[in-house]
Amino acid sequence: MKIISCAAILTAAAMPCTAVYAADNTKKGYGQGTAVDEKNRPLGAVEFNSRYGGLDAFALSGDSSRIIITFDQGYENGYTSKILDTLKEKDVQAIFFLTGSYARTEHELVKRMIDEGHIIGNHGMTHASLPTLSEENEKEEIMSLHSYVLDNYGYEMQYFRCPCGEYSERALETAKDCGYRTIFWSSAYVDWKTDAQPLPADGLKKLSDAAHGGEILLLHSVSATNAEILGDLIDSFRAKGYKV
């Protein structure tokens, strides 16, 4: 299977992890914050890129004309098929970050993602917070899922998203030395609480108002609201002049 590349994020092919680490392993929780610059970009995301870009870790893409839509796939809640239908209708390529359990149990959906031209990302075999693991187990968390997806889908992943949004310098180095680029996000909202979903109009306004060039949008496919508003959201981004 040919590696699918994203136009807005540089590619990196995976390789065995062999590094010896001296980096700080203090656990940090990522958040983009609410303060924005003159381009409507969250200051937390801008600072993250500046601080960790050298470790191939990013919260904003380098393409100021584009918004990248990403989904975290921890478990299936019945909405992914509808999301994929909308993405196909709107001719949008998204990134789906899979956990090991999702990759193992949702073969038809994962295969559809790949067949329809989406990017598959690595969200950790067990969704474990990397800074809580030993160096060897950090590597295993990433590369066991990498190997599973390669062996079972013929697809070589190249983007990693830290489980729980928790990271350390050592964790970012681990991902880099495994051949991955670590992708956080510059826009997100509380969409994962399946029993407390935002009203569709509220979700659409919040996400549309937060639009900015280079945006990496984090959504969860377990959200009924996201499945309902996705087409209108894409139209809103395009109306603002962004490629999606």
Topology:
Blueprint: E1 28-29, H1 43-52, E2 57-58, E3 67-73, H2 80-90, E4 95-98, H3 100-105, H4 107-115, E5 119-122, H5 135-153, E6 159-160, E7 166-167, H6 169-177, E8 181-183, H7 200-209, E9 215-220, H8 224-239
Parallel strand pairs: 2-8, 3-4, 3-9, 4-5, 6-8
Antiparallel strand pairs: 1-7
Helix pairs in contact: 2-8, 5-6, 7-8
Strand element count:
9
Q: Please report which band the strand proportion falls in: under 5%, 5-15%, 15-25%, 25-35%, 35-45% or over 45%.
A: 5-15%
Order of helices and strands: EHEEHEHHEHEEHEHEH
- The backbone outline, from C-alpha atoms, is globular
Helix-and-strand structural type? alpha/beta
- Strands of the widest sheet, in order across it, are 5-4-3-9
Count of the domains:
1
InterPro entries: Glyco_hydro/deAcase_b/a-brl (IPR011330), NODB_dom (IPR002509), Polysacc_deacetylase_ArnD (IPR050248)
GO cellular component, one term: membrane
Keywords: Signal
GO molecular function: hydrolase activity, acting on carbon-nitrogen (but not peptide) bonds
